[in-house]
Predict the structure of Pentatricopeptide repeat-containing protein.
Amino acid sequence: MKFLLQDAQRSLLRGLGRRYLAASATSTEQYSKRNYANNVSEYNTVFASLTVKRRNYLLRDAYDDMMLDGVQPSRDTFHSLIAGTMKGSRLQDAFYFRDEMKAMGLVPDVVLYNFLISTCGKCKNSDQAIKVLDEMKNYGVKPNGQTYICLLNACAAAGRLDPVYTIVRDMTSAGVGLNKYCYAGLIVAHKNKTPVSEDVAAKIIEFVEQSKNWSTVEASTGVNAENVMMNVSEEELYNLPTADYIHRRQGFLDKELTVYHVAFDAFVELKNVQVDLLTSLAMETLVELLKSEKKDPDVFILVQMMSLGIVEQQDMWQLKIRSLTRAVLEQVKFKTARAQAEFDQHSKIIKPMCYLHSGDLDRGLQIYDDYMNSKKRIYIELYVALVEGAMIGHTPRGMQIALDKLEEMTQRNFFLNPKMANDLLLIAAGDKKGGYTTANYLWDLMQARNITPWLPAVQAYYNGLKARFVPEEDPRLLQVSSTYEKLARSHRRYSVLPAVVL
């Protein structure tokens, strides 16, 4: 109830503020300068612009201004608003716009309901996603193939295996084949299941093998033209880990490797949960499956491989030595007798892999060097992945490698975006014993590029400087202290709101 009162208060204050500006304007010209939109077309352009700039939190403010101006929203308006809230994972705003739409006599169509289910998945609220599907049926809106895949991935994000398998059974019984996004959802469901099962690595490998026939049923869902017009990719609609990279230049992401993308990303997360031999061996098996299809890993997979610390040994590949122990064999089921016989032949010469005895940092460096020597297009994500991995544990060698690669990145005219810069600064600021050279370099880099620092990163960097007994009159400390106090005040002002007293 408190949140509802606060929300009502914010709407009232916004309305009063807007009316005050309108009343205090001395002329029509001054008012027109303050008013950024006058009709539904202009407001639709504003909503689209806010979404592109990732200022999704301002959509509701702009919509309130639209209401105060007496502009009637259209169906396209709500499509833009709900798509924007989906991109920003703002579940409450998404349902608010749905309710506003229904109050104006506009029934949401299947595309909007798909956006709502996807938003529930982003917020890991699978119960609400199921309720949205029930609402669709009550209003006579027929779900399509994308609806069920959205629901499948929404339940997978919460790690709920039972609803996921129920959806899969319903789709297969209805004669709808499973495409690559369904197999991706199955992998995500097993990855997010808590507690993590012992056979999760074998399950992921099994789904990757089963997905090899997905192309025969790819047309079962089709590509929605409206999603394309609103710049909503299927990867984003289904909350896949590649959603943020789908619009990158050609060569960074190969859409035919979607299942491999999700599998590698799952292994990266699982390695942080359970570091064991089984997971490491299964990861190498995934690399071999990719090789068996005569496909080269794209940049996204290379970044995951750098995080996993996998090194492809060319001589081992030529000998077809599989990095599977007998324990893994008992869990991974080969699809054909020929594959089983082939493994039995090569298993006679299996020996401990030399690279398993080396550090993850060395393996990541090897993958990085191999890609750089290939003369392919260079992406900044390769630098970020290596720098982030090198700073794990804050070892002197790792921090020096991170600093060297940051300097190399700058010399090549690659620049960090705000998220990358703040994430790296937050990690570098955790160094308790080193000279803080890497953290200082990142801070100076952000200042030179006018990148706005985020409160968690600044707070960690500020505490690190104070722990090193830097003189209070030091210019760097004064600058960091001033930035930290400014961000802290702003955070307190926007996070603490007075409740309405009735």
Q: What stands out?
A: Residues 1-26, 215-220, 310-359, 496-502 have pLDDT under 50 and may be disordered. Residues 378-502 form one domain. Residues 252 and 299 are 5 Å apart (CA to CA).
